[in-house]
Amino acid sequence: MTTSTNSVEEFAKKEYQHGFITDIETEDFPKGLDEKIVRMISAKKEEPEWLLEWRLKAYRHWLTMKVPDWAMLKISPIDYQDQYYYAAPKMKDQPKSLAEVDPELLKTYEKLGVPLHEQELLAGVAVDAVFDSVSVATTYRGHLAKLGIIFSSFSEAVREHPDLVKKYLGSVVPYTDNFYATLNSAVFSDGSFCYIPKGVRCPMELSTYFRINAANTGQFERTLIVADEGAHVSYLEGCTAPMRDEHQLHAAVVELVAMKDATVKYSTVQNWYPGDKEGRGGIYNFVTKRGKCAGANSKISWTQVETGSAITWKYPSCILLGDNSVGEFYSVALTNHHQQADTGTKMIHIGRNTRSTIVSKGISAGVGQNTYRGQVRIMKSAEGARNFSQCDSMLLGDKCGAHTFPYVEVSNPTATLEHEASTSKIGEDQLFYCRQRGISHEDAVGMIVNGFCKEVFRELPMEFAVEAQKLLGVSLEGSVG
Amino acid sequence: MLEIRNLRANVADKEILKGLDLTVRPGEVHAIMGPNGSGKSTLAGVISGREIYEVTSGEVLFEGKDLLEMEPEERACEGIFLAFQYPVEIPGVSNTYFLKAALNSIRKHQGLEELDAMDFLALVKSKMQLLNMDNDLLNRSVNEGFSGGEKKRNEIFQMAVLDPKLALLDETDSGLDIDALKLVANGVNALRSPDRAVVLVTHYQRLLDYIVPDFVHVLSAGRIVKSGGKELAQELEAKGYSWLEEPVNA
Ligand SMILES: Nc1ncnc2c1ncn2[C@@H]1O[C@H](COP(=O)(O)OP(=O)(O)OP(=O)(O)O)[C@@H](O)[C@H]1O
Ligand SMILES: [Mg+2]
């Protein structure tokens, strides 16, 4: 750890010489949000005029909007004027080494088997200085560039590929979409941009781990992934878990575009800080994720494992515009202690013979509340559309809750819809069976819950599936009496 | 090996075991018979530590240790195995994964090294042959969609892999066809050794033709009302239980 810390410091110093850190620290970005702040963010990033205009339109629209209150969530009001909207001030709060990071958090990482330099990354330790990742990132980048794949931070993409960004930004989630997405549009700090050209199959899973600024992009990330005709990409959004005492808003936007015959697979393992056992602190994760199957035979698949955050409000959706396009949503959401989740998906069938599959597994423990909210909409034009939905809930203990709200709207009589739902308690008989075979109570719970989630884990890339399973185990700790 | 003295136990506040005594020495096979609802599964449940059974008095010692103080998983790790009357399904958890976790947990407790995938597979293969188990069953979820007989056979297969000191078999013969019955009996007989013991609950003499017991006990209304040698089972087969109940209640 010492060597690593030293080199981190050295690297940080080096950055200082380059004027990077000085810049930010002397810059006085006040708390609160007004047009001036939006302009400052845009100026800081040296953005083109059109992007500033877009941000300002979003900001002005946001002023007219109300906080949504339809979700099954108890949210203490957020004072939007009491927040920083630029990442720089946060740098001062960052731990300088792992020694300053909460030991509880480190224990979690250890259990997950996260390598040391990734631990630093995740804990928010001067990330820019993690030189390992820099080189890793550039190696991959060069390899990808040869195939014409663009994979960079959002800011960089704005600088280097403004036409692409301009064409697709807001094309799936318009700046007027919803309270949090609109706020994001006004103040987004950074994020990922990915473009896969025609006919290219991305040879590796793209992951936020490999992108250097990822962990530092702050509360308002913006991700845009475009798969051109016949392209194929699988994107992983890594598990990150900064720990802070107060509730903190995280309002990201992810837009996916799949052209004709293209496939985008987006996998998330979300492990933001859930708050402590009494419900203090924790991230408010209010995220808008949406994909557009723009061309015929395209496919967008969302897989999410949500174990973190105090509150999760998230509905990764698919707009099935192209004929024969396919939308998928596989989800595991776990709420323990005081966590709340209201999550699900929307499948909007517009094209002919469009198909969608929804598999949702909700697990509630402690006094956690878990809500599935899903919408399947078959438009008039969606001749022969099909949907299959399966929503299963598992309760651990008797103080938690599971709720299911499936909304269905069918405007074309040729559509076929199937819906299955179940709610079960983790069985005393199952637990005893495992324990009688010598498996500890805690491991038995983990095993049964993992089995319950199997259909979703199967959709995750291999290493991610392993990580997700471990994560479930860690997240369930203390949930068995 | 197993010493049960004056055991009383409740289920849902109803007394089921009403002062039961039983001694099992290493190397012995005991058969427990008795009418439906007399408390046979309850006894197996109490020995293995199922929480729905509340012990109100008496003691249960295993190799001199107080079993009632131990968690179910500790008892399992000490070498107690229960083949369930109704094996439980665990969706999404493969049989192999489950069994490997169980075996390694027990080995760890016993201070043995955990088996790696290769060694485990070799062990499993040899036990599969013993029970003529289908490879396919191994990769499926634990008991999920297994036929009644397959579930029972899977219990004995697990027993063979986990190699317990004391095996409790709760009506493992029920629902088995003749061939499967022989396979199960083979599995149990393979486990018999001077330092191991078997307690098997059954309703039928038939199983005892293959697994010859040293003792046969009749459990009725929460107590052992008669004990004898293997010929007692034949007598029961011929006469039923009613002739036993009168002298006890009188
Ligand atoms: N969970 C429970 N709740 C209430 N009563 C129970 C419960 N489990 C068992 N009992 C009752 O306890 C009594 C003994 O049951 P047990 O299963 O031990 O019988 P058994 O001897 O194994 O019968 P069988 O030969 O039918 O398997 C029965 O009257 C049964 O109804
Ligand atoms: Mg029984």
SSE blueprint and pairings:
The complex is a heterodimer of chains A (481) and B (250).
Chain A: H1 2-17, H2 20-26, H3 35-44, H4 49-63, H5 88-93, H6 103-112, H7 116-123, H8 131-146, E1 150-153, H9 154-160, H10 162-168, H11 179-187, E2 190-196, E3 206-207, E4 221-227, E5 232-237, E6 247-250, E7 253-258, E8 263-270, E9 282-293, E10 299-306, E11 311-314, E12 317-320, E13 326-335, E14 340-349, E15 355-364, E16 369-378, E17 386-395, E18 401-410, E19 416-425, H12 428-436, H13 441-452, H14 454-457, H15 462-476
Chain B: E1 2-11, E2 14-24, E3 29-33, H1 40-48, E4 53-62, E5 65-66, H2 72-78, E6 80-83, E7 90-94, H3 95-109, H4 117-131, H5 135-139, E8 141-142, H6 148-162, E9 166-170, H7 178-191, E10 197-201, H8 205-210, E11 215-220, E12 223-228, H9 231-239, H10 242-249
Parallel strand pairs in B: 3-10, 3-11, 6-9, 9-10
Antiparallel strand pairs in B: 1-2, 1-4, 4-5, 7-8, 11-12
Report on the structure:
The complex is a heterodimer of chains A (481) and B (250). In chain A, 31% of the residues lie in helices and 30% in strands. The radius of gyration of chain A is 22 Å and the shape is globular. Chain A has 481 residues and is of the alpha/beta class. In chain A, helix 3 (35-44) packs antiparallel against helix 4, helix 9 packs across helix 10 (162-168) and helix 12 packs across helix 13 (441-452). Chain A starts with a helix and ends in a 5-residue tail after the last helix. In chain A, strands 1, 2, 4, 6, 7, 9, 11, 12, 14, 16 and 18 form an eleven-stranded mixed β-sheet that branches. In chain A, strands 3-5-8-10-13-15-17-19 form an eight-stranded parallel β-sheet. Chain B is of the alpha/beta class and 250 residues long. Chain B has a single domain, classed as Rossmann fold (3-Layer(aba) Sandwich). Helices cover 41% and strands 28% of the residues of chain B. Chain B contains ten helices and twelve strands. Chain B has a six-stranded mixed β-sheet with strand order 6-9-10-3-11-12, with helices on both faces. Chain B has a four-stranded antiparallel β-sheet with strand order 2-1-4-5. In chain B, strand 11 and strand 12 (223-228) form a beta hairpin. Chain B is globular, with a radius of gyration of 18 Å. The A-B interface holds A 427-430, 432-441, 443, 447-448, 450-455 and B 48-52, 71-73, 75-77, 81-82, 84, 87-93, 98-99, 101-103, 105-106, 109, 141, 158, 162. The structure holds adenosine-5'-triphosphate and magnesium ion (MG).
